[in-house]
Write a structure and sequence with these properties.
- A hairpin with a 2-residue loop joins β9 and β10.
- This protein is about 15% helix and about 30% strand.
- The protein has eight helices and 23 strands.
- A five-stranded mixed beta sheet has the order 4-3-12-7-8. Strands 5, 6, 9, 10 and 11 form a five-stranded antiparallel beta sheet that branches.
- The chain folds into three domains: about 35 residues, no CATH class; about 200 residues, Sulfite Oxidase, Chain A, domain 2 (Alpha-Beta Complex); about 130 residues, Sandwich (Immunoglobulin-like).
- By secondary structure, it is an alpha+beta fold.
- The structure holds the ligand Nc1nc2c(c(=O)[nH]1)N[C@H]1C(S)=C(S)[C@@H](COP(=O)(O)O)O[C@H]1N2 and molybdenum atom.
C-alpha cells in the first residue's frame, strides 16, 4: 500500500474513533455557525506585544508578606497548554523582598575563593562565552505542601509553585574551568544582589548541569525571576536557584547561612530536621479538569496534566478516574525532556457519575510517584500529620510529592479531594 493511502486510512480510523468519543461534546454546525466579526481592529503600534484583552489568565497571590513586600505568586497551571510557562506567568518566591532594580551595565559577576584566578565578568563578557539553552522546570520545595494546601480549591493554589522555561546562559563548569578550582574545593556559595540571599551547592552538582542563565524563553530573565542572572540548578528545589547572582565563592563546605539554617531544613515530628534535601521527587498532577472547574455535562473530555522529576526524565504517566482503584496509561506529549515538565493526555468519557481523577508518574530511575499513605510511611507520620498546620512558615511537609485526587461530583463540579 502506498504511504499516502495508509495515511488516509489512519486518518479515517482516528476520525471515526474520536467521533465516537465526542458524542455529546460537540454540536453540528448550521448556516449561522460563524458569528465572528472582523470589524474591531486593535492596536498596531506594539513594540512589545500584549496578549488579547479577552485573555485574563493570571498569577495569583498565594501568600502576602505585608506592605511593600513581594507576595508569593503562583502559576495558573490549570490554564496552560504545552510545557512552557510564559515569563509573565512564572511563579515568584522572593522571601518577601521586592525584586531589585538591577542595572545590567553596572552588574558584575565575581568568582573567587579556592580558585587559581579570581575573575570578574560584565554581562557583555558573559554573552561572549559558549552558551547553552535548556528546558527545565523550577519548583519550590513548598509546592503542594498538604499542611497548607489540603483545603485549597484549585490546582493553582495546590501546585502553582512550579513553572517550566527555556533557560539560556553559560554552564557553571565553563566559568569554573576559566577560574580554575583548587584541590580542597568541594562546594560553592552563590550570593544574590537582593538583600543577600545565598545558597551552598556541592561542586559535583555545580559542574554537572548548573547554568547561569541570562535568557528565559528567548528574552532576558524576568525581573521577578532573577534579572539579569539566575542560577538554574536543574531538578533541585527552588531555593537552590539563586536569583540576581553577583558572586560565586568556591569553598570547602556548605556555608550554613541565614536561610539554610532557618526556613530551608524541614522540622520533623520527633524534633529533628531534614537537612539539605536538594532533589525534587517524581510528581504529576491533573491540571484539567481540576479543582474549581465545571464540566458542562456527560461526554468526552481530554484529561491533561503535567509530570516532572528532579531525578531525570518522565517515562510513564498513568491516569485513574476511580480514585486509584485502576490506572491506565496516558499519552506523553513530545518533547519529553529531562528535568522538565512533561505534558500528558488521556481520553475520557464522563458518564455523569461521581469520579475521582488522579495521575501517577514514573521516572527513568524507576521511581513511582507515591500515594499520601506511602509518604506517611516513609516519613513515619500519621495521615493526620498532613492535615495539621504548623505555626509560622508551615515548612514541615516540604518535598511532598504524593498523588493528588480531584473529585468530579454528579453536578459536574470538581473539588480538591486529598482528604475525602
Ligand atoms: N535572590 C533570591 N533568590 C531566590 C529567592 C530569593 O528570595 N532571593 N527565593 C528562592 C526560592 S524559595 C524559590 S522557590 C525560587 C523561586 O524562583 P522564581 O521566583 O524565579 O520562581 O527562587 C529562589 N531563589
Ligand atoms: Mo521556595
Amino acid at each position: 500500500m502506498s504511504s499516502k493511502r495508509s495515511d488516509r486510512r489512519r486518518f479515517l480510523k482516528n476520525g471515526v474513533a474520536l467521533a465516537g468519543l465526542a458524542a455529546g461534546a460537540m454540536r453540528s454546525a448550521n448556516g449561522k455557525a460563524l458569528e465572528t466579526s472582523f470589524d474591531n481592529y486593535g492596536k498596531v503600534d506594539l513594540p512589545y506585544g500584549d496578549r488579547s484583552h479577552f485573555d485574563h489568565t493570571a498569577r495569583m497571590v498565594e501568600k502576602e508578606y505585608g506592605a511593600g513586600m513581594s507576595p508569593s505568586l503562583v502559576t495558573p497551571i490549570q490554564d496552560l497548554v504545552g510545557i512552557i510557562t510564559p515569563g509573565p506567568l512564572h511563579y515568584v518566591q522572593n522571601h518577601g523582598y521586592a525584586p531589585p532594580d538591577v542595572d545590567p551595565d553596572k552588574h558584575r559577576l565575581l568568582i573567587h575563593g579556592l580558585v587559581d584566578r579570581p575573575l570578574v565578568f560584565t554581562l557583555d563578557e558573559l554573552h561572549r562565552l559558549p552558551s547553552v539553552s535548556r528546558i527545565h522546570f523550577l519548583e519550590c520545595g513548598g509546592n503542594s505542601n498538604p499542611k497548607t494546601k489540603h483545603t485549597a480549591k484549585t490546582v493553582q493554589e495546590t501546585h502553582g509553585r512550579t513553572s517550566c522555561s527555556e533557560w539560556t546562559g553559560v554552564l557553571m563548569s565553563v566559568l569554573l574551568g576559566e577560574s580554575g578550582v583548587q584541590k580542597e574545593a568541594s562546594w560553592i556559595v552563590v550570593e544574590s544582589a537582593d538583600r543577600v540571599y545565598t545558597k551552598s551547592i556541592p561542586l559535583a552538582k555545580a559542574t554537572d548541569d548548573v547554568l547561569l542563565a541570562y535568557g528565559q524563553n528567548g528574552e532576558p530573565v524576568r525581573p521577578e525571576n532573577g534579572y539579569p542572572l539566575k542560577m538554574v540548578v536543574p531538578g533541585w528545589e527552588g531555593m537552590a536557584n539563586v536569583k540576581y547572582v553577583r558572586r560565586i565563592k568556591v569553598v570547602d563546605g556548605p556555608y550554613m547561612d541565614r536561610w539554610e539554617t532557618t526556613v530551608q531544613p524541614s522540622p520533623r515530628p520527633d524534633g529533628k530536621s531534614r537537612w539539605f534535601q536538594f532533589e525534587q521527587g517524581a510528581i504529576s498532577v491533573v491540571t484539567r479538569p481540576s479543582g474549581g472547574h465545571q464540566l458542562a455535562g456527560p461526554g468526552f473530555y481530554e484529561i491533561t496534566g503535567l509530570a516532572w522529576s528532579g531525578a531525570g526524565t518522565i517515562r510513564r504517566v498513568e491516569v485513574s478516574t476511580d480514585g486509584g482503584q485502576s490506572y491506565k496509561d496516558a499519552q506523553l506529549q513530545e518533547p519529553v525532556l529531562r528535568k522538565a515538565h512533561t505534558r500528558f493526555r488521556f481520553n475520557w468519557k464522563w458518564d455523569g457519575e461521581e469520579a475521582v481523577l488522579q495521575s501517577r508518574c514514573t521516572d527513568d530511575q524507576g521511581t513511582v510517584q507515591p500515594t499520601m499513605a506511602e509518604v506517611a510511611k516513609v516519613w513515619n507520620v500519621s495521615l493526620e500529620y498532613f492535615r495539621v498546620k504548623d505555626k509560622g512558615e508551615n515548612m514541615a511537609a516540604k518535598h511532598f510529592n504524593a498523588i493528588w485526587p480531584w473529585k468530579v461530583t454528579k453536578d459536574g463540579s470538581v473539588h480538591n479531594a486529598l482528604f475525602t
